[in-house]
Amino acid sequence: MIDPLNRWSAIGEKPDYAGLLTFAGLPYTEDPAELGGVDVAIVGAPMDDLVSDRPGTSFAPRAIRAASSPPGPHLEAGVDAFAELRVVDFGDAAVLPADAQRSHAAIEKVVGEVLAAGAMPLVLGGDHSVTDPSVRACAAKHGPVGVVHFDTHTDTGTEVFGVQRSHGTFMRSLIDDGHVDPRRYAQIGLRGYWPGEREFEWQRERGITSLFMHDVRDLGIREVVGRALAAVGAGPAYLTVDIDVLDPAFVPGTGTPEPGGLTSADLLLAVREVARGLELVGADLVEVIPNQVGTADSSALVADRVVRETLTGIALRRRAASSRPALSAS
Description:
Layout: E1 40-45, H1 60-67, H2 81-84, E2 87-92, H3 100-116, E3 120-125, H4 131-142, E4 145-150, H5 170-176, E5 180-190, H6 197-206, E6 209-212, H7 213-219, H8 221-232, E7 236-242, H9 264-277, E8 279-286, H10 298-322
Parallel strand pairs: 1-2, 1-3, 3-8, 4-5, 4-7, 5-6, 7-8
């Protein structure tokens, strides 16, 4: 396994613009045999062939890696996820431009390798359709999973612009194919003008929990997250975050922006609480369109922090299970 930090080992840190480009400067490997003992593996899924509006999310995994900063303790949560967990960067799935079927197969294969090694995959998309192969791999190992889904849209359409396979239809397919338990599926942040009553009626019939932006406004983010956690309950669960759940004021780089969304602060807290409260077996962050590869890209920067909060929540859950106190935030 290559350790990109070894040349800076004498001082214990390196600048984020130097060394091999991995998430948070993590050790890098593409060898499943080196995943033994790993808790979380970062996996890139750089495809955007199934978008319905603006493309560009294929550049996101690289941009998110470039925006990530070195490890350190979370000043609010009082835990250093990288000290608590063993995390590696497992590289990118071997996607093929203009061939969504083979790209999905490549993503499912890599995620399956992570799961087979006993680690949790944390996928950097890519358009939201990459959740489909990732969840399928998780369900193949754990059975039907519960899902917490942050998004402007439900992604439970039968088609988008007459096309059945897209980033707006994959959740319906996952439910219809038995990979997601709809009674353990909660959506957070819905707003705007799509989908319509037909899709929501389909959701109600299956017991899906839909939490809208007006619920966040009226109840507060903690109450909304609490309701989502109660709906998913115990058992294997998957977290998917479409960055367009944020208001475009906070994340200009996404394919289908919708005003009136979450603030960055609310999303970061919510993701951490979900990761702390559920038995996550997989997670992803999708639909980021970077403006450039580097730390100045605000969309990639908030995406990096969503990943960090997910890891922090997992670390808090593990710390609570071991009854060890969190680090002092003072």
